[in-house]
Specification:
139 residues; alpha/beta; 4 helices
Length: 139
């Protein structure tokens, strides 16, 4: 495997399907080399370190973007939402553009609503086996 860039957070997971064997059999089987790329702010393909690293190190890549409901609630500073209407419009356009770009290359972008940690847990259970979750650390 290639070295991990310092700006990436890599979590190697000894994860198998859900502990319920009947659910594990129903889940689609992922290869041992499956990497979930949790995308946050870098929604361009051409210079996305997470996707480029995964492409060099995985048999299968699952690009994932989560609309985190916590980003649309009021903050502790004056109760303004972290993501206002203009930023939301930009995010929607960026997610749509990335999905279309990935589809042109034979891939896709999985888009979910929910806390990323919850979405990841559900996705790992659905896939049955994931070797790594890669994402950029947010400052």
């Amino acid at each position: 495997p290639r070295p991990i860039p310092s700006s990436l957070s890599i979590r190697r997971l000894p994860v198998t399907a859900a502990s319920d064997p009947t659910r594990a059999m129903a889940a689609p089987q992922a290869a041992a080399g499956t990497i979930i790329c949790l995308l946050r702010n870098d929604l361009r393909l051409q210079d996305n370190e997470v996707l480029h690293w995964a492409q060099k190190n995985a048999e299968h890549i699952v690009p994932l973007y989560c609309f985190d409901p916590r980003h649309y609630l009021g903050t502790h500073y004056y109760n303004f939402p972290k993501t206002g209407p203009h930023r939301l419009k930009f995010l929607l356009e960026s997610v749509k553009d990335l999905r279309e770009t990935l589809q042109k290359k034979g891939s896709n972008l999985l888009v979910r609503k929910g806390k990323p940690e919850d979405v990841l847990q559900e996705l790992i259970q659905q896939l049955g086996s994931v070797s790594t979750v890669a994402f950029h650390d947010e400052a």
